[in-house]
Automatic annotation (TrEMBL):
Species annotation: Carya illinoinensis (Pecan)
A Pfam entry, by short name: SAPS
GO molecular function: protein phosphatase binding; protein phosphatase regulator activity
Sequence similarity: Belongs to the SAPS family.
Superkingdom, taxonomy of origin: Eukaryota
InterPro entries: SAPS
Feature: compositional bias, Basic and acidic residues: 639-661, 751-761
Entry protein name: SIT4 phosphatase-associated family protein
Residues covered by region (Disordered): 617-761
Composition skew (Polar residues), residue ranges: 618-638, 702-739
Length: 761
């Protein structure tokens, strides 16, 4: 007992170290619980770590590379622990650092050009600086303002992603930070930090530098201070950006990332929304974005040079594919140009539309659509361009697309000749010795054609153009209409999947949210089902073993139940139809067999035989026509009984199973003696008599009513004189009460089945 009490009062290992007369910082850093003690604001520990000497040593662990012969803990553990101590955001420790200029100089010595910039230490440096920027914004920005050369050093290291994150926050590309400390951060607007960043496209050939520079500029377009926003969207800055991008000596990554900045200027929310929301915005009718007209004019000055890069005739590189070869492949830079034009069209600028018509940009892009029939990224952007042009209020743009670009004729030609051309001069050539494959842009052409039909109903110009084309009318009637019928997912017998027009719906608008589903009841049923092994195909031992599982192993929460509901929603209508059909074919003997010992069956009967309380065994009985019914078994939960007015007393736990047959009247009941009973509505006395029969069965068999297989038929007939009751020995066979309830023990052998039939006779 003394040992156990002593164990409860054991002090922290950190306290043990602090109790020593002479201990070092390394001893504390080597203790695993030091971070927890810092977060718990251990007074003795924090008072020790706040000392200048300890803060300086922690900074050295972060910014200085460890000697080659040092231990692993000096190389990996100590820098990590030192960084975590600062990011615990203990105010008194951060204050010691930020208010000491020498310590700040030591921290930012990491960005000196001659200093080694290890990626691991750069991450620790970034976390400490961002922590200071968030928690000690005013003194930190005052230090940076007094040492503005730090900004240039950070830009020179922009290829390191951790340094880029520091730079993004430093220039105010964080909405919440800038609004809270406008005065402390306003000085950054007067610097030439944006020019230094954009010049990295020209001074460096590293793709990492180009990507991080573009990301920093894109962040500036979204959450920049007013002064920086005006500067980055000015025509002079756009011209400077395109000069670097269009230089022949520069790598293609410069062009790709420069266009990313232009796209972000036209549509700042595009990068933050992601591809899912971006696609929805593009396919939504009439969706446009707004941009500064001066920014658009600055971009239009370089548009002709961009379109020249879309020419693939002079390229010589070849890419082999599974369907043939590309000569040349489209490339990221051409795809980015098409994406840029797709965003430019959505702006709705009349000046941009006129320039696109004058330069023939739409026609050239349409050529790429058919020259590269297997590039789905390209097809997506071109479809967006065509949709925006068709929905435009600019009549000359629509006329240019229909007349000069000959959109309808090219659609009909592609639908007619839907195999890949074998022309060796085309950019896409099929493989030799194989039949040309089907082109891969037919789906996009179908959507574009449907958009033409839709807009033709509201535009007299489009309608007149389509009606004048007899080939279009014939193709629409014989091909497009039938294709739309096939692709109408609401008419599919297998269920309705999520279609394109459903993707814009919010998750709160899903069908299952509006349906009368009891999520808690479903979760409870699923938990019980898996707990008792109903869905298991394992042997009996494993089924019984499942009873001993912990509830956590089989618990279905509401979130899991909603996943099931989402799948139920897809085939809800089909399930209702299937239930109606199964109800119509409910098994019942013919009224003509009343008084006979034989029940004629014209089809096989599927019987579920449950032999134990786990309900895991299933058998199939297939009696031949003209033979006696050997087994008629029904399974139903006691909690699913219905009241006379159609309302349920309790929600059903298990689904009722019914035997199927071709017999005519579903209201008749087969008695255990083989006779047919024309059912009627049970009386209270009948129910009581049934209960007594059930109790007698429990006494004779030694089993409970829950282990018996019970089937209930509610008979609409009100004439009690037609009811017949066989009060045979319940231990020898089934017991049937006047309300149509039959309890039966499942026979195990053929002799048992014969005994049941003989008892019934």
């Amino acid at each position: 007992m003394f040992w156990r009490m002593a164990g409860l009062s054991t002090t922290s290992p950190v306290e043990t170290i602090l109790d020593k007369e002479n201990f070092t910082l390394e001893e504390l850093l080597d203790e695993d619980e030091i971070i927890q003690e810092c977060k718990a604001l251990n007074g003795r520990l924090i008072n020790y770590l706040r000392e200048r000497a300890q803060v300086e040593q922690l900074i050295r662990y972060i910014v200085e590379e460890s000697p080659e012969d040092s231990e692993k803990r000096r190389t990996f553990k100590f820098p990590f622990i030192a960084c975590e101590i600062f990011t615990c955001e203990v105010d008194i420790i951060l204050k010691t650092l930020v208010e000491d200029e020498e310590l700040m100089n030591l921290l930012f010595s990491f960005v000196e050009p001659e200093h080694p910039h290890i990626t691991l230490l750069a991450g620790y440096f970034s976390k400490v600086v961002i922590c200071l920027l968030l928690r000690k914004t005013v003194p930190f920005m005052h230090y940076i303002q007094a040492h503005q050369d730090i900004v240039k050093k950070l830009v020179d290291l922009i290829g390191i992603t951790s340094i880029m994150e520091v730079l993004i926050r430093l220039i105010g590309a964080d909405e919440h930070m800038y609004t809270n400390y406008m005065e402390a951060m306003q000085w950054i607007e007067g610097t030439d930090v944006l020019e230094m960043i954009v010049d990295k496209f020209n001074s460096s050939d590293s793709p990492e530098v180009h990507v991080n520079a573009a990301e920093t500029l894109c962040a500036t377009t979204r959450f920049a201070p007013p002064g920086l926003s005006a500067k980055i969207s000015s025509p002079s800055f756009i011209g400077r950006l395109f000069r670097h991008a269009l230089e022949d000596s520069r790598p293609k990554s410069v062009l790709v990332n420069s266009l990313s900045v232009c796209i972000s200027l036209l549509d700042p929310k595009r990068q933050t929304l992601g591809m899912y929301h971006t696609y929805n915005r593009q396919v939504t009718q009439g969706s446009t974005v707004t941009a500064n007209p001066e920014t658009i004019e600055g971009m239009l000055e370089s548009l002709s040079d961009l379109l020249k890069l879309l020419d693939v005739s002079s390229a010589e590189n070849v890419l082999l594919t599974t369907y043939g070869k590309l000569q040349p492949p489209l490339g990221k830079h051409r795809l980015k140009i098409v994406e840029f034009i797709s965003v430019l069209v959505t702006v709705g600028s009349e000046a941009a539309e006129k320039e696109l018509i004058r330069l023939g940009a739409i026609q050239r892009i349409l050529d790429l659509f058919f020259e590269y029939p297997y590039n789905n990224f390209l097809h997506h952007h071109i479809e967006s361009i065509l949709m925006s042009c068709l929905e435009s209020k600019n009549a000359p743009l629509i006329d240019h697309l229909l007349q000069e670009c000959n959109l309808v004729a090219r659609i009909l030609e592609a639908e007619k000749n839907n195999k890949l051309e074998t022309d060796s001069n085309k950019p896409t050539v099929p493989a030799e010795g194989r039949s040309p494959p089907r082109i891969g842009n037919i789906g996009h052409l179908t959507r574009i054609s449907n958009k033409l039909v839709q807009l033709g109903n509201s535009s007299s110009e489009i309608q007149a153009y389509l009606q004048e084309n007899g080939e279009w009318n014939e193709w629409y009637t014989n091909v497009l209409s039938k294709q739309n019928a096939v692709e109408n997912v609401y008419q599919w017998a297998c269920g309705r999947p999520t279609a394109l027009h459903d993707r814009t719906r919010d998750s709160d608008d899903d069908d299952y949210q509006d349906r009368d589903y009891d999520v808690a009841a479903l979760a409870n049923n699923l938990s019980q089902a898996f707990r008792y092994g109903i869905y298991s195909n394992d042997d009996i031992d494993e089924a019984h073993g499942s009873l001993e599982r912990d509830d956590e192993d089989v618990y279905f929460d509401d979130e899991s139940a909603e996943v099931v509901l989402s799948s139920l929603r897809l085939g809800d209508d089909q399930e209702r139809i299937a239930n109606e059909r199964s109800t119509a074919s409910l098994a019942s003997p013919s009224p003509n067999t009343e008084g006979d010992d034989v029940i004629n069956c014209s089809s096989d009967d599927n019987v579920v035989i449950c032999e134990d309380d786990d309900l895991v065994d299933t058998a199939t009985s297939s009696p031949e026509t003209g033979t006696k019914s050997e087994n008629t078994t029904h399974l139903m939960s006691e909690n699913s009984r219905e009241t006379g007015d159609g309302e349920t007393d309790k929600p059903p736990e298990w689904v009722e199973w019914r035997e199927t047959s071709d017999s005519g009247d579903p209201t008749d009941v087969v008695l255990p003696n083989g006779k047919t009973q024309v059912g009627s509505k049970p009386s209270e006395s009948d129910v009581a008599e049934s209960s007594s029969s059930t109790n007698e069965l429990e006494k004779n068999d030694g089993t409970s009513a829950e282990e018996s297989l019970v089937s209930t038929y509610e008979n609409p007939s009100s004439d009690p004189s037609k009811q017949e009751l066989d009060n045979g020995n319940p231990s020898l066979g089934p017991t049937t009460s006047s309300d149509g309830v039959m309890a039966e023990g499942a026979p195990e052998t053929e002799d048992d089945k014969k005994d049941v039939n003989q008892t019934g006779n």
